[in-house]
Amino acid sequence: MVMEEGCQTPRSPEAKVGMQVEDLWDIQEPQLSPTEKLNACFENIPVSDFPPAPSNQVIEINSDATLAEAVKLLSQHKILSAPVVDVDAPEDATWIDRYIGIVEFAGIVVWILHQSEKMEGTSAFDSVMNGADDTLSPALAAAVNGVASPRFRSLHPESPTATSGNFFETLTSSDLYKNTKVRDISGSFRWAPFLALQKSNSFLTMLLLLSKYKMKSVPVVDLGEYKIDNIITQPAVIHMLEECAGLHWFESWGSKKLYELGLPLMKPSSIIQVEEDEPVLQAFKLMRQKGVGGVPVVESGGRKAIGNISIRDIQFLLIAPEIYKDYRSITAKNFLTSVRRYQGEHEKNSPFLSHMVTCRRGDSLKDVIMKLDSKKIHRIYVVDDMGNLEGVITLRDIISKLVHEPRGYFGDFFDGVLPLPANSRV
Question: pLDDT tens for residues 344-360?
Fold first, then answer.
């Protein structure tokens, strides 16, 4: 195996994987394109070789936990989502019957806001009060009833009071938040389908699920023990790539400039963004509608970027609602200011950053990967010399330049091997 000096022994478990790729890279047919070579390499490495996630990040949430309890657990472990275990499943249940889905910060917030939005009209309220809505469990009906009083009538996400400083303090003290069980919102909004990989599946499958199929994390199950063995996240994949720097296969690809690779893929006019004086809920609404994980905040009437709001930041509406109490309106700018101040006071080494990370078109892909890994994020904005937005690059874009999906690759993968939960709407 030929490698750069200093790379003879793996410096980390991730670098060990990179050396496996290097070994396979060296024996590929010379007429293959670099992408075809890497496809073949990653197809021959099982996901069981991916380094295990830290034990504090592989947690499970019981289906009978309340939304408040789920938020507390996610926050304590500094993770954005977790698989939900059906407490009523038999002990010998297979993993498909044991897990009912993934719960996320974003899903909880969007679901709660939707319930308060329903209270604006009378149809949803009347159906609950009259017992006509058979789709709601008794516990959920009781919870909705708890926020149906007149004082909640103005909590429509698009009404002025929805973004006032005391809105989320009121919300997190409501019966809806305290009494609703995690299982009651299963299959709603941004809940992810519980697609999992078996340990024998390949790195290529994992990379394609994260990129083309837009999964934010990929659980790996142990069929013998009927449980999750590992969870592969986007930042973990970025870190794996960063640890491969110096290897020939990585340098042949990572040394290229962004513009040489056709990055960013999106034109400046197509960037989904919010202006600094818009309500912060507009940012989260756009993320839900457009299926993106973050939006840049720009100066009013311009293109100059002043910050970034990520789907991960939605947690701060639930875990620290008191930081907005002095605001008549939580604008995107006020949200960024408050979150940064809160993090400065409470979370010195927090991975949840609202600061904007940027790069230039002339930077190499390796430079970008290094930046993403140092900040533990998977989204970076491309700006010009004046700080104006020119595009955005995500891990999905990076993977799309690394590998491609062969024709018919997944076959009946989604239909037979990994069935969706019966209650999934995703």
Answer: 887 665 544 456 899 99
C-alpha distances (whole Å) from 8 to each of 15, 22, 298 are 10, 12, 46
Same fold, 46-243 and 257-400: yes
Per-residue burial over 108-132, b = 16 or more CB atoms within 10 Å of its CB, e = otherwise: bbbbbbebbbbbbeeebbebbeeee
CB atoms within 10 A of CB 346: 11
Q: How far apart are CA 407 and CA 123, in angstroms?
A: 48
Q: Going edge to edge, which strands form the sheet with 379-383?
A: 358-359, 379-383, 389-394
**What b/e readout covers 138-148, taking b as 16+ CB neighbours within 10 angstroms?**
eebbebbbbbb
Burial of 405 (0-12, 13-18, 19+ CB in 10 A): middle
Domain boundaries, the chain: 46-243, 257-400
pTM for the full model?
0.81
Rounded Cα distance, 204 and 201, in Å: 8
Q: Which fold has domain 257-400?
A: CBS-domain (3.10.580)
115-173 pLDDT, tens digit per residue, is 766 654 433 333 332 333 444 444 334 434 433 333 333 344 444 434 566 777 777 88
Q: Give the pLDDT score at 188.
A: 61
User: Is there a contact between 214 and 400 (Cβ–Cβ < 8 Å)?
Assistant: no
CATH class of 46-243: alpha beta
Amino acid at 29: E
DSSP 17-68: HHHHHHHHHHTS-TTS-HHHHHHHHHHTSBGGGSPPPPGGG---EETTSBHH
Beta strands at 81-85 and 99-104: parallel, antiparallel or unpaired: antiparallel
- Residue 207 near residue 237, CB atoms below 8 Å: yes
CA distance 148 to 160: 19
What distances in angstroms separate CA 415 from CA 25, 46, 84, 210, one per listed residue?
Answer: 32, 22, 22, 18
Length of the chain in terms of residues written = 426
